[in-house]
Amino acid sequence: MLLSLSATFLSSPTGGSELTGTITIAGSTSMEPLSRELGAAFERLHPNVKVIVHGGGSGAV
Fold first, then answer.
1. How many domains is the chain built from?
2. Quick check: is 61 in a domain?
3. Hey, which of 9, 15, 26, 39 has its CA 20 to 30 A from 33?
4. Per the domain annotation, does 13 fall within a domain?
């Protein structure tokens, strides 16, 4: 499974930090359903991050 992470922490006016960017997951078709569920959960926790999941085997990029 290939995981590409392009995300940034930005300071918020309240002193916290906010994660933004894109996460791309590509790889095994058998892991695609789990990857999609985990990606959706991550997006709920970090609404400024987009998780993209590609199945289709190890050649998927």
1. 1
2. no
3. 9
4. no
> Residue 32 domain-assigned?
yes
CA 47 to CA 57: how far, in whole Å?
28
> Which residue range(s) make up the domain with 38?
2-8+18-54
pLDDT at 15 over 90: no
Q: Which helix (H) or strand (E) holds 8?
A: strand 2-11
| Beta bridge mates, 8 | 20
The token duo for 59 is 């050649």
- Give the number of C-alpha atoms closer than 13 A to the C-alpha of residue 6, restricted to the C-beta side: 6
Q: For strand 49-54 and strand 17-26, is the pairing parallel, antiparallel, or unpaired?
A: parallel
Residues of the chain with pLDDT > 90: what percent? 34
